[in-house]
Every structure is written in C-alpha cells, then in structure tokens.
Amino acid sequence: MTLNKIIRVSLLLLLVAFVAMAYGRQPLETLKPPINNILMILKDPQYNDACKKNLQRDKIFEIVRGLFDFPTITKLALGKYRKSFTPEQLKDLTNVFTDLLGKTYINKMLSEFKDEEVLYIAEDMLTKKKAIVKTKVIREKGEMAVNYRMHLHDGVWSVYDVKAEGVSLVKNYRTQFSQILFKEKPEILIQKLQEKLKEQEAKTYVPQP
Fold first, then answer.
1. pLDDT of res. 205
2. From CA 95, how far away is CA 74, in angstroms rounded?
3. How far is C-alpha 189 from the chain's CA centre?
4. Mean pLDDT over residues 130-158, rounded?
5. What are all long-range contacts of 156-162, with beta carbons under 8 Å and residues at least 24 apart?
6. pLDDT of residue 23
7. d(CA 181, CA 47)
8. Which residue has the higher pLDDT, 41 or 16?
9. Please, what is the average pLDDT of the chain?
C-alpha cells in the first residue's frame, strides 16, 4: 500500500469514527450536564446578591442557547404560517423569539426555584434522529413531569420542544401565533414580540449601581 493510499484510508477511518461518536452519543447524555449546570447556578449562594442577578441570568441563558434549537422551535411554532415569512422576517422573528423565551422562562425559573431536583427517568428513541427524554422535577409540594423532545442535527442532539405537565411549549406558542397571523401580517407578530421582550427586560434585569 502506497503512502498516499495509507493517508486516505486513515482519514476515512477517522471520519467514520467521528460520525460514529456523534451518532452514538445519546440524547440523555447530552441533556443531563447542561440541566445540572443550570441547577448548580440556581443554587449558587453568590447570586443571592442582587447585583449579580444579571450575571446569573446571562450564564443560564448561555447554557440554554447551546442546548435548545431555537430556529426549529420558531418554525414549528409558526406552523403553516411559516410560508408567509420572508427569510429576513423569519430571521428577525427567530432572534426576538429566542430572547423572549429566554428572558421569560429564566425569570420564571429564578422567581419560583426552591431547591428542586431533577430525576432523569427514561430515554425513548423515536427514530435514529428523534427522541424524548423524560424527567421529573422534585418540588416541595410534589413532582412535575417534564419531557424534552430532541433531535439530532449536524451530529448534535438539541431540544426542539418541552412538555411540562402535559403542556407543549411549541403548541402553546403555535396557538398564540395563529391567532395573530390569522388577521395580521408577519411584521405585526414580530412587533408584538419585540414589545413583550421590552416588557420582560424591564421586569427581569436589575439596574447596576
């Protein structure tokens, strides 16, 4: 075997190994570390200082951005109305929707967190590239089932929907978006989300001295 052929074979084997690793990593293994990291940040006493609340939110949002597939969430929430959006409008909507979801739910998390724990119950593989990871949030007043729908995209598992207590994030926003888009143009939906984002920013971020 010539040197060039050896190099080509070696590169091919490395590529196969890389793909196998990407596809072999399970959804639960992808989900668990970032969720646990978020819990650690929520429990960290240094963030009891009001001056560090913004930093706490930013750290959590950084983790969330890496775990959730916000472009897919946006497209699924639009449903049939996705065709009404130009590529630029879809990009604008995705950006504002991502920020709105992050600030809304992280603010809710921070205001309601009471030393909860997360149990990882099961991993159901729907196909080779789609799965549901079932968890339970253990609270003082009981348990709450939270299921994460995940898909494999470009070799990485990411979350594209969350169902908490039987309520789907995507379906909830699809209903809201449909009610607006049934009567209004895409730019009106973007404008409404921008207004809601400003409201959330006013509520959640602590002014620094």
1. 54
2. 9
3. 21
4. 93
5. 156/22, 156/30, 157/25, 157/26, 157/27, 157/30, 157/31, 157/131, 158/30, 158/67, 158/68, 158/69, 158/72, 159/31, 159/67, 159/68, 159/69, 160/68, 160/69, 160/72, 160/73, 160/76, 161/73, 161/76
6. 43
7. 40
8. 41
9. 86
The token pair at 119 is 């149990």
For residue 153, what pLDDT band results from cuts at 50, 70 and 90? confident
Fold of 27-204: Nuclear Transport Factor 2; Chain: A, (3.10.450)
Q: How many residues does the chain have?
A: 209
Q: How many whole angstroms from its chain centre is CA 206?
A: 24
How far apart, in whole angstroms, are the C-alpha atoms of residue 122 and residue 131? 10
DSSP classification of residue 187: H
Query: How crowded is residue 93: how many other Cβ atoms within 10 Å of its Cβ?
Result: 24
Calpha distance 8→201 (Å, rounded): 53
The residue among 103, 100, 77, 104 whose CA lies nearest residue 90 is 77
Burial class of 104 by CB neighbour count within 10 A (0 to 12, 13 to 18, 19+): middle
Distance, in Å, from the CA atom of 88 to the CA atom of 115, rounded to the nearest integer, reads 42
CA 56 to each of CA 15, 104, 107, 121: distance values in angstroms, whole numbers, following the listed order:
39, 14, 11, 28
Helix, strand, coil percentages for the chain (3-state, nearest 5):
65, 20, 15
> Tokens for 31?
């989900």
